[in-house]
Design a protein that fits this description.
Layout: E1 7-13, H1 16-26, E2 29-30, E3 40-44, E4 50-56, H2 70-84, E5 88-97, E6 108-117, H3 127-132, E7 133-136, H4 141-147, E8 150-156, H5 164-173, E9 177-179, H6 182-191, E10 196-205, H7 212-238
Parallel strand pairs: 1-4, 1-5, 5-10, 6-8, 8-9
Antiparallel strand pairs: 2-3, 3-4, 5-9, 6-7, 6-10
Helix pairs in contact: 1-7, 2-6
This protein binds S-adenosyl-L-homocysteine.
Residues 14-15, 68, 93-96, 160, 178-181, 203-204, 206, 212-213, 216-217 line the site of S-adenosyl-L-homocysteine (SAH).
Length: 244
């Protein structure tokens, strides 16, 4: 006899501010345990077909800032899957995008194709490809069509700034959007056979003169609000899907 349990969908954020509106919208309950790492977990189980888990990377104990970047993202993704065994993991957050591809500030995009790294340059046979990642996204075609969202390849690295080498790898892989977590989470999800895709709201342009940090700070609120709106619509679509 098959046990008909609800599907569990986990949404992983790097920054508290990116997650706050979404958590408040559904009235999630804090289920963080006292783990050695300052990750936060929230649960919402009031829907008929799915249960939602939100994971946030938490605050650095030493520097008192949000734990952005690939290392906390990967460790949290691993801890999340071990603890909650989700049927689907979504990386939600903000990202920089190329103006030359007509992306807009505040636009929300979905992942497609492969997730890349733009700052892992390992010029040794076979390691070159390993460094670039190239990890597959779960298909977002249905969501893109229904919500009228663009789909892009996403690339991750550990800097907010984009170096010359980063730019040339972004060009080579064809990634139009750059952030600091998605590919690391994609790797964990691939290893643990958990379907994974990303939803990112554009805070800044990579290819303009204005400093990325200034753009990011100015647009973070608006981009986070747009991200929340799309996530709520996405949940409505996802609740009738099968992922595994
Ligand atoms: N300086 C920021 C720190 C956040 S780092 C602050 O003032 O709080 C940027 C975060 O947003 C990361 O989690 C990353 O995934 C995302 N991000 C947005 N734009 C980015 C860009 N241009 N490059 C890399 N990451 C970006």
């Amino acid at each position: 006899m098959s046990v008909n349990r609800k599907q569990r969908v986990a949404i992983l954020f790097a920054m508290e501010q990116e997650a706050r509106n979404f958590i408040d919208h559904y009235k999630f309950i804090d289920v963080s345990n006292n783990s050695a790492l300052p990750f936060k977990y929230y649960r919402y189980d009031e829907m008929n077909t799915i249960e939602l888990i939100v994971a946030v990377n938490g605050t650095c104990k030493t520097h008192a800032v949000d734990q952005v970047g690939t290392v906390p993202a990967a460790v949290n993704a691993f801890a999340l899957i071990q603890q909650f065994a989700p049927d689907l993991v979504i990386s939600a957050g903000t990202a920089g995008g190329f103006k030359k591809f007509d992306l807009r500030i505040g636009e929300v995009v979905l992942s497609k194709g492969l997730f890349w790294y733009h700052d892992r340059r390992i010029s040794l046979p076979n390691f070159l490809e390993y460094g670039l990642g190239g990890i597959e996204s779960f298909s977002t075609d249905l969501f893109a069509k229904n919500l009228n969202l663009r789909q892009v390849q996403i690339s991750s690295g550990d800097s907010l700034a984009t170096s010359k080498d980063d730019f040339s790898i972004l060009e080579k892989t064809g990634a139009k959007v750059k952030e600091m977590e998605a590919t690391a989470i994609a790797w964990v999800c691939r290893e643990l056979k958990t379907p994974f895709f990303a939803v990112k709201s554009i805070t800044d342009f990579l290819d303009v003169h204005e400093k990325v940090a200034a753009q990011f700070i100015q647009n973070l609120n608006m981009a986070s609000e747009n991200l929340t709106k799309v996530l709520i619509q996405l949940i409505e679509l996802i609740k009738d899907q099968k992922f595994k």
